[in-house]
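A further point concerns the way the authors explain their paired sequence and structure data. An entry of this sort, consisting of the sequence and the corresponding C-alpha cells, reads as follows:
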Amino acid sequence: MRGGRDHGGGAEEGERLEVTAGRPLAERGGGRRGEKAAGWSGTDCCVWFVQTTGLVGLAVCATPHERLRILYTKILDALEHIPQNAAYRKYTEQITNEKLQMVKEERDVQKLEDRLQGGQIEEVIEQAESELNLARKMLQWKPWEPLVEEPPANQWKWPI
C-alpha cells in the first residue's frame, strides 16, 4: 500500500506508515484529487493524512485556514501604509479582501481550493507569502511617488 498524493511516498506492504503532519485524507478527498484513500473503510480506527503535495519542495500545511487568514491580514495591514489612490493598494486590497472572505466562509479545504482557483492550498499559501513580500517591497520602493527625473522622450515608443 502506498501513501501520499503522488502515491510515491509511504509504506510498502508490511511496513508501518508513520504520519507526522498533514490533514486527514477524508478532508482532502483522498491521495490525489478525487481519489479515495487506499485501504480506507468506515471501520478503520485511524485516519490517514495527506503526507505530500506531490510538488517538490512544497510541504503540506496542517492548518491552511489559519495560515491564510494570518497572511491575508498581514497583507491588508501592509497596504494600509500605501496611499489610498495608489493602484497597487486599490486592486490588491480588493482581491485580498475577497480571498480572506472565502477563507472565513469555506471550512472545507477542497472547496476552498476550488473557490480560490490558485491550485492546491499550499500553492495558494505560497502565493500569499509572495504577495506579502511584494507589499513590503512596495513600501520601500514607493512607486506612487513622482519620478526623480523626467523619462526619456521616446521611452515607450517601439520599435525604436
Residues 1-21, 25-41, 43-48 have pLDDT under 50 and may be disordered. Residues 29 and 36 are 6 Å apart (CA to CA). The chain has five helices and no strands. The two ends are 63 Å apart (CA to CA).
